[in-house]
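name: query_chain
kind: protein
chains: 1
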Amino acid sequence: MNYQESLDFLFQALPMFQRVGGSAFKKDLSNTFKLCERLGQPQNNFKSIHIAGTNGKGSTAHALASVLQEAGYKTGLYTSPHLKSFRERIKINGKEIPESEVIAFVKGHQAYLTALKPSFFEMTVALAFDHFSKQKVDYAIIETGMGGRFDSTNVIQPILSLITNIGMDHTQFLGDTLDKIAFEKAGIIKAGVPVIIGQTHPLTAGVFTQRAEETQSPITFADQGVKVTSRRSEANEGHVANAVYQIKPAMGSLQEISMDLLGKYQIKNLPAILKALEILQAMGLEIKDTHIAKGLSQIKRNTGLKGRWQILSQSPLTICDTGHNIDGFESILSQVEELDRETLFFVLGMVADKDQDQILSLLPKKGVYVFCQADQPRSLPAEQLMEKAKTYGLSGTCIPDVNQALEYAKKSAGNRDLIFIGGSTFVVAELNEL
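structure:
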């Protein structure tokens, strides 16, 4: 069995939410427990930090991993979904799991997996834990897939839990109100384990407080104690290289933080990131201010993170972002509006099982739209998206292929224009330029 054959088995033989949607989602952890038992309980062989939330959990996970790497710790990182390569999901110190490890896992457990019929996500979680255990990582940053309570990652006993925020996403699985969604995310809070809430919301704070009281877990609402404001951008040869934020109160000697993640929404992620590092320091981890400063300024270099307000070209300014729900798009559009550009081009694609109406209602009518669709079963056909967009006063062209759509926008745009590509993680994933 070679690597491609291993991937074929994983993608085709097992249900995968990324491709088929709800049929792959189960409110049951039994398969994950069975897989971990077969593998010798690998999740117990390393210390972990568990991260959930509607938006920001990927950026937060990569930021913490980058700082721990700078501090000299062998750091595992499990995130989802991947953009270009399956192996992006499982990294140690920024290096993707080797193809040989994927092959060995599938080959060694193929018969068992075929009989058990776990979901794609359950299997991937088990592979990650097995890899981290065998490689003897010091710490692993584990990002949940969708919810929390029944997420396959929720078999770990972390040293710290972190919930970034709560927004309206995956409502068909997690609940149709913020407090119901918060209840599912709060499922990662474990007995006696400190938990950080990134953003305080009146409809969800009580849910988290109650859960923390039940589990006797120290709880911190990061945004109530750490205030972050945008200061300026650092330029490199005329191009924006890093965003700089002021933090109050200062963290040790650090009054300003530089991040190489340029999305304005990082201002919402930073309080929880900084509070997590403060708690880890209190636990005895040797994380110095220099590690924090360097780690946050080199997240992309250290971890390989892609697709977060990523600048693909300067002339015309071309940006992609994986934000795909209402909260994410509100932040994206706020930042787009601040850019001094003549014409806004949107290369836009969405999935069929999301609420497209909320996002379409926010988009500027003066924009020029190129409607596309990712090569995924869940994608909304580009023509249907274009017709729906027309009802919101949005007009443009239908070019289904993502990269052809981008090429069309490039030929149409001038040097003073902006091209934004997004609407779905899958659209960004198919960009050849990523």
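note: Residues 310-429 form a domain with the Protein-Tyrosine Phosphatase; Chain A fold (CATH 3.90.190.20).
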